[in-house]
């Protein structure tokens, strides 16, 4: 383990909460892999507490106890057992999230692009993906809502939403818990949480997680670890409940990630004529990345105030006010070689203020919510692109500054026509405004002043300031038929919307002469820089069944996805010497796609057929099948290549299965489970490239967890990726897909980033 200053801070925080106690929340009755028949998971997907059985939406929910029992480290783990969901750490980063649900998402994390999947922590929307790879601690549950969301809360999200819900504080007695994880690659996690009532109406709580692990590989150039983890996160909260009808919660959270930069694995040797000959490394977790002008650091902080007032037995008022800020500094070595062939140090800063007001109603036959949401946000990105091997000291710098101002009103109500038939109608009206400044300059002398370099600007290739606005109305409607308590059939139509913007990497001097007039006009520059909103119409037919021994949720869906935003980058040869010496971003509303699929999640109680002693044997599964096809895809040259492209980051099949056995051992409960998760072939980008794309693979995880009879002690052993499967989760491609000739730089950039290898973790926990 690396001795860092952060370890000292972590030790101080831990000592203030729990001295030397090692305590953690025990797993409750419903273990990972248990059937849903023994314990009902309550969710708030429709802004009111309901069982999963009653919600006419495709929702997968995980309790905090389930996540602990399966050995999940962060929210990336839930993608293994959730159908048609992809969650990854973005290329070259540890904590920036790339999320896709049912083929809809956003890969590029730079300012100017809106997320296709909404991430919420305690109902606060994360406007940017930086620091959104959330570690799992102090969590009550995680809900994954598939399909467009927006008529119920928060930001209008076109692909779906992931809701991270933290635990509320115990109002009656002090509580203290802690967990110690020790595992392979030097893993050492310390997680402590506690709360104390300060009288009958007021309580304070805190949680801290110090998460550390050595690297899976080594940077052979700098000597640093590669794929290590060094994260400190904490959360403090205060809750005031002056009466049974009033509730206030003030919460502050902070995360700092000082892990080493994540270097990639070159999939090809350096190109002929490159200053040095480099072959392909044997270990995919080793790298030769030489970029070290800045240290990797991610800092994220958030403050939220939630207020609830039950006006009477029917009406409730809720308000959620939040302020969030984050800053990420990251050296991304695209070429992953010691030389500066394609080196990109970057700084991202984001800040946002959001306000959400809700008025909720629940009567005998009518229930629903109406509300107002507003977001004021700023996102900046600055990065250098050093092309030192093209021309010594050549640097293309990009500075993007994006202001987002949006407000919306929404409503969603369900009415029981009869005792068995309900209808839901909802709508959302949104107004978005986005203002972007894009400044691109060519430097000589190396890195710019942002990264401590002596480089100086010699040319400005973009100096753009533009504002655009859009408005949208997105409806939803559903009908649900529950002929019995065990069955719920539903049909839902929903529409999603994702705002447009300006490509912060685009080079205005590369604007095409659209009207062939011989002069590039301001309108043509605006058209080149801007991209429009995208929208989706989603149709879903579902059946949820819950019996004594068997339960399932089946959803068939079809989506018409139009004006799809496709960001990309292409190299540019500005001096006609045959070598690309800079690049430009090219984001287009490339076309339209249809996405059709099925999801089948279920649980089966096998124990009654096998045991007479009270032992439990349960089987659970999640299957996703997706067929997505572009009907139109216009590339940067105006050509329809829809027959050559695929839906990116979305396998055509996902399958997981868990077998769980529960028995009594030494007066407590012993739960042993094994999970297999399979993902079909997937393409990293829209244009398939077998040298970079990931073929189908299967991961195997296993856990054995013992809980004492009183729920105080827990011991666990978790193995993940037991077969040590090697699989790519992301990558960079700046080579010709046929000849592998370099498209930017002189070495050729074809790089993969990989999922975690086999790990084994032992846990010790205690709670009172």
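-> sequence recovered:
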């Amino acid at each position: 383990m690396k001795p860092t200053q952060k370890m000292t801070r972590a030790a101080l925080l831990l000592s203030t909460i729990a001295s030397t106690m090692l305590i953690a929340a025990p797993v409750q009755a419903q273990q990972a892999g248990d059937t849903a028949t023994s314990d009902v998971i309550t969710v708030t997907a429709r802004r009111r507490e309901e069982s999963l059985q009653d919600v006419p939406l495709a929702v997968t929910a995980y309790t905090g106890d389930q996540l602990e029992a399966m050995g999940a480290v962060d929210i990336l783990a839930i993608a293994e057992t959730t159908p048609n969901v992809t969650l990854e750490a973005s290329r070259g980063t540890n904590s920036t999230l790339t999320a896709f649900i049912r083929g809809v998402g956003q890969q590029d994390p730079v300012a100017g692009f809106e997320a296709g999947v909404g991430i919420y922590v305690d109902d606060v929307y994360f406007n940017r993906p930086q620091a959104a790879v959330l570690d799992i601690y102090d969590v009550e549950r995680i809900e994954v809502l598939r399909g467009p969301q927006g008529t119920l809360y928060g930001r209008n999200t076109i692909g779906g939403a992931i809701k991270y819900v933290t635990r509320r504080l115990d109002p009656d007695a002090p509580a203290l818990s802690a967990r110690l994880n020790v595992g392979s690659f030097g893993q050492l996690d310390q997680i402590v949480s506690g709360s104390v009532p300060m009288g009958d109406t007021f309580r304070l709580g805190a949680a801290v997680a110090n998460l550390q692990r050595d690297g899976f590989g080594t940077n052979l150039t700098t000597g640093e670890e590669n794929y290590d983890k060094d994260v400190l996160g904490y959360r403090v909260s205060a809750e005031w409940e002056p009466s049974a009808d009033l509730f206030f919660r003030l919460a502050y959270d902070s995360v700092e990630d000082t892990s080493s930069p994540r270097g990639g694995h070159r999939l090809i040797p350096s190109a002929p004529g490159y200053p040095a000959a480099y072959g392909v490394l044997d270990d995919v977790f080793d790298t030769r990345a030489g970029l070290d002008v800045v240290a990797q650091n991610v800092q994220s902080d958030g403050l939220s105030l939630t207020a609830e007032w039950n006006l009477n037995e029917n009406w409730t008022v809720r308000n959620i006010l939040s302020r969030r800020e984050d800053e990420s500094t990251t050296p991304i070595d695209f070429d992953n070689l010691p030389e500066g062939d394609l080196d990109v140090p970057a700084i991202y800063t984001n800040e946002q203020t959001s306000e959400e007001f809700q008025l909720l109603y629940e009567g005998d036959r009518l229930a629903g919510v109406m509300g107002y949401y507003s977001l004021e946000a700023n996102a900046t990105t600055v990065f250098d692109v050093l092309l030192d091997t093209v021309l010594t000291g050549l640097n293309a710098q990009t500075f993007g500054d994006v202001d987002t101002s949006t407000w919306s009103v929404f409503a969603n109500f369900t009415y029981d026509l009869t005792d068995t038939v309900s209808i839901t109608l909802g709508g959302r009206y949104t107004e978005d405004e986005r203002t972007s400044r894009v400044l691109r300059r060519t430097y000589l002398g190396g890195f710019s002043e942002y990264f401590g370099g002596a480089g100086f600007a010699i040319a400005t290739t973009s100096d753009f300031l533009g504002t655009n606005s859009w408005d949208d109305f997105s409806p939803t409607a559903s009908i649900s038929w529950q002929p019995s308590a065990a069955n719920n059939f539903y049909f839902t139509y929903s529409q999603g919307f994702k705002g447009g913007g300006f490509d912060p990497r685009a080079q205005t001097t590369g604007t095409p002469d659209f009207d062939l007039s011989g002069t590039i006009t301001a309108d043509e520059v605006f058209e080149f820089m801007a991209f429009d909103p995208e929208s989706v119409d989603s149709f879903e037919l579902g059946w949820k069944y819950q019996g004594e021994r068997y339960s399932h949720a089946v959803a068939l869906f079809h989506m018409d996805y139009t004006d799809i935003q496709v960001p990309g980058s292409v190299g540019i040869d500005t001096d006609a010497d045959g070598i690309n010496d800079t690049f430009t971003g090219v984001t287009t509303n490339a076309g339209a796609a249809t996405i059709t699929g099925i999801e089948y999640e279920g649980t089966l109680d096998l124990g009654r057929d096998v045991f007479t002693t009270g032992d439990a044997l349960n089987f659970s599964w999640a299957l996703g099948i997706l067929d997505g096809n572009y009907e139109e895809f216009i590339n940067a040259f105006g050509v329809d290549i829809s027959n050559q492209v695929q839906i990116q980051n979305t396998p055509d099949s996902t399958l997981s299965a868990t077998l769980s056995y529960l028995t009594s051992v030494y007066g407590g409960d012993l739960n042993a489970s094994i999970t297999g998760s399979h993902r079909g072939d997937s393409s990293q980008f829209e244009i398939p490239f077998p040298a970079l794309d990931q073929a189908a693979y299967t991961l195997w995880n296993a856990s054995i967890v013992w809980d004492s009879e009183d729920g105080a002690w827990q011991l666990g052993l978790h193995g993940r990726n037991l077969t040590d499967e090697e699989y790519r989760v992301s990558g960079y491609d700046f080579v010709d897909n046929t000849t592998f000739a370099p498209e930017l730089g002189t070495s050729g950039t074809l790089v993969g980033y990989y999922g975690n290898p086999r790990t084994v973790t032992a846990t010790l926990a205690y709670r009172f």
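The first strand starts at residue 42 and ends at 43.
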